[in-house]
Amino acid sequence: MKKKPATIKEIARKLRISPSTVSRALNDHPSIGLVTTMRVKKMAEELNYEPNQTAIFFKQRKTFTIGVILPSLSEPFFSSAISEIEDVAKDHNYTVLMGQSHDDADRELQILQTFKKHRVDGILMSLGKNTEDLSFIELLEESEIPVVFFDCVPNIDQVNKVYSDLSSGMKEAIEAFASIGHRRIALINGPENLLAAQERETAYKAALHENNLEYNDKYIVHTDLTEQGNIEATDKLLALSERPSAVISFNDFVALDVMKYARQKGLVQKKDVYFISYANYPLWKYMENPPMGSIEQHPDKQARKAAEILFENLEAKDPIEPKTVVFESKLVLK
Questions:
Q1: For a surface tag, which of 2, 170, 188, 303 has the fewest beta carbons within 10 Å of its beta carbon?
Q2: Contacts for 173 with CB less than 8 Å, ≥ 6 apart
Q3: CATH number for the domain including 252?
Q4: What is the SS3 assignment for 62?
């Protein structure tokens, strides 16, 4: 039979002292003398004693775990974010539990409920593109589980959120196109209900105005971010009598689909059409013919700051005011 793990009571019985004395000695309590502390720790080692983490968690009302919910763990953007989150968590002696929503709102809610059931101490979250119901925020507040959003954040006040200001990168992209003579610049945007897509459109219109370029609503098309959706959005632009000569896409994965489809249609990149996208994934350095540029959104900085804000909340004795931190996006030419 497998031997049961030693308990504090067993150590106390062998040393003929009280269990409370053993407990205090194991935790280096100043009320216990050095000799007794050493005897207790020696006996604990001989008996292969391991602390009952469940009891410790119950006493401290903490599980020393945080939950992280992301749309996709395989995306380079979130891979960079995860590394920063785990580093911050390690510094605070916390374990990280991961969940990916795959942009499925029901799955996202199921992960949240699982984290709540297992009493994670806090949650870091990037919303899925289809998430509209935010009632879970109130449920987490009632359970005293702080949540910090990053990258894809809710368009509401009084929540902790960290994101990239998309307008600065968009402005640089439009200026870069305009500087080499482009007048017909299109935007392949994400789903219309997505805050990030709304921000891109607002920034796009403002940047056109700043560069004295005419706005044409036909040059804004939307995709659901699937390959088929990206192709359909591209088809709308290619069907225009005055086809755009430059395109800004929602992210690098959209750009990959669009660039491939444009090639299939006989268009030559950086001759017939130029591309700039958002995200600045590392994949471009492995391509012989990358887009003209990509807009850096700083996933590592966003994730680290979001994690730091979460631990500020976890360590605070009293509730603290929600924080909003914004990083400027920046065009990186290829």
A1: 2
A2: 207, 248, 276, 293, 295, 331
A3: 3.40.50.2300
A4: coil
Describe the chain by its helix, strand, coil percentages, rounded to 5: 45, 20, 35
Instruction: Output the pLDDT for position 1.
Output: 47
Domain membership flag for residue 12: yes
**What is the predicted pLDDT for the residue at 3?**
56
Residues ≥6 apart with Cβ < 8 Å to 234: 188, 221, 257, 258, 261, 262
Residues 183 and 237 in one domain: yes
Domain span including residue 140: 63-163+299-326
Quote the CA–CA distance of 121 and 60 in Å, as a whole number: 11
Strand 330-333 and strand 293-296: pairing? Answer: antiparallel
Closest CA to 255 of 227, 282, 214: 227
The CA–CA distances, whole Å, from 280 to 131, 236, 293, 295, 330 equal 24, 25, 8, 5, 9
Position 134 in a domain = yes
Neighbours of 119 (CB within 10 A): 14
Judge contact between 320 and 312, C-beta under 8 A.
Answer: yes
Q: Is 241 exposed, middle or buried (0-12, 13-18, 19+ CB in 10 A)?
A: exposed
pLDDT of residue 52: 66
Distance spanning both ends of the chain, measured CA to CA: 65
Tens digits of residue pLDDT in 33-59: 999 999 999 998 888 887 765 555 555
Dihedral sign (CA 299, 303, 309, 310): positive
- Residue 281 confidence (pLDDT): 84
